[in-house]
Amino acid sequence: MLAHSPGRALKWAAAVMCLVAYVLLAWISFIHVHKGLPVTPWDPGLGVVFALMVFAGPRAGFVLFAGVVVAEVLVLQEVEWPIIVGVAAITSLSYTAVTALARQPLQIDSGLFRLRDVLMLLAIGFAGAVIDTVLLTLFLLSAGQLDFRDIVQVFSPLLIGDTIGIAVVTPLLLRFVFRQRSIALRDLFAIAPEGILYLAVIGAALWAINGSESLHGFRLFYLLFVPVVIAAVRHGLDGACFSLAITQFGLIGLMRLSGYDAAEFTEFQAQMLALTVTGLIVGVVVSERENSDRLARDAQARLMEKQAGAAHAARLNLVSGMASALAHEITQPMTAARALARSAQHIVRTPDGDLTRVEGHLTTLLAHIDHAGAIVRRMRDFMRRGRPHVSTIDTRRMLEDALMLAFAEASAKHVRLELDAPDRLPAIHGDYVQLEQVVLNLVHNAVEAITGARLSDGRVRVMARQEAAPPRVEIGVLDNGPGVEGELANRLFDPLATSKQDGLGLGLSISASIVEAHGGRVWLHNGDAGRTEFRFSLPLDQPQV
User: Fold this and answer.
1) Interatomic CA distance for residues 535 and 462, integer angstroms
2) pTM score, whole prediction
3) Quick one: DSSP state of residue 198?
4) 326: exposed, middle or buried (C-beta count within 10 Å: 0-12, 13-18, 19+)?
5) Which residues of the chain carry a pLDDT beneath 50?
6) Whole-angstrom distance, CA of residue 427 vs CA of residue 424
7) What is the DSSP letter of 77?
8) Sign of torsion over alpha carbons 478, 484, 486, 487
9) Going from the N-terminus, what domains does the chain have, and what CATH number goes with each?
10) Where are the alpha helices (DSSP H) in 104-184?
11) What residue spans of 350-453 are helical by DSSP H?
12) What span, in angstroms and rounded, lies between the C-alpha atoms of 344 and 368?
């Protein structure tokens, strides 16, 4: 029980605040009266409680019932109690019914993130207003409070007032109050000049409307569309809600101070209702597109993270296949270095030893150690790197480093590696290690294919050429292996496509992703046995990796 008390207290506090707001707004909006009944087409209090009902559920209809009773007692002191209770019951039941419909079968999202939710809110608000107005009119007719001649003067103001009260106030509260969104102070300062500009434009439009004759005032109402639509386009649904609230309250204040009668008031509110619907639709479409773009960016970022993880896993898988050959390759220079060190030590200990020979041993020893260190360093960098790092790449050096890493595996499996590339290949721009991985993947696949076919004279040749139209570098990996079967050739670059029993099927897929991220493409140039060739091209202009 104690665990639920804070949430229950907050709900009661929200209900009380909405009740107070309803009564206060009803008192402020009490302008025009017809036979003791309010006929001003503006009911912001209903918009407040309706927002609570959409957010918290139909049970908040009790707040609406209590608000109508209290407001009618305080404002309409001449109306009898049965009339007051009947009006409150009809109003609360009408909006409770449409709220229940919206929340359960229609599943409205109170955050109003989609066009569907905004249109549904407007539709159920209008439906509730129609039901409430029709039932109230019939009830007041049957109770003798009104006669048939009063229907024209009462029906339209009640319908438009309820609808626009919901359309203007409810979305504003659902977006900013019930969602408990926090707005940083620096953000308020950032938009303050623009907000002042909107106020000035709306004020100027209202001044033009009020300064004209009545007919021209209606015609000039379209001036209010400009700031509302601009705010909606720039800031989405939030901008539309704020600009519409400012416009509506400014319009109400203007009409009250200028002494417009109920009929003119209703005409202005009908136009304001059209502006409200337009502004909300434009705003939510903009917000929905921004949300879609943000979700697409987030999905792209997650995809890139997964691709980076998959690339790292592929590197580890590739390295695991090269580990034994690499250990053998490192052991050879280290064994030679140890033998040279022992020999140099022996010569130094010998009286009148040949120091020139010692110097030669040490020079050779350092060369072996540097060679082993280079292999280990390149392998470490290859395994460690995950995120792209764009730099200017010496194309031939990148190919030489890739072959150096692949040499251990190839020599252990008696496959000869060759490099056919001019010394002055143009530089390319991209991630050194990722492009090196593409070459390594292709060479590794070629070596594996040759080994699987048990060829005794296996050869893998890496070639590179500069092409002019369009300007690019084209790199190919050729082998004399068994070739690629036609069925597999059509899906080589799909994830998990592999002909190896223990293969992950990630190498070519990741290679294609890397090359495409660099603005190039990769393809099977020839799948015939004895002359299999994969190629990939890279543009010479700098890509956005």
Assistant:
1) 10
2) 0.61
3) H
4) buried
5) 1-5, 216, 325, 496-497, 501-505, 544-545
6) 9
7) T
8) negative
9) 1-181 (1.10.1760), 392-545 (3.30.565.10)
10) 115-142, 151-176
11) 355-384, 395-412, 432-452
12) 15
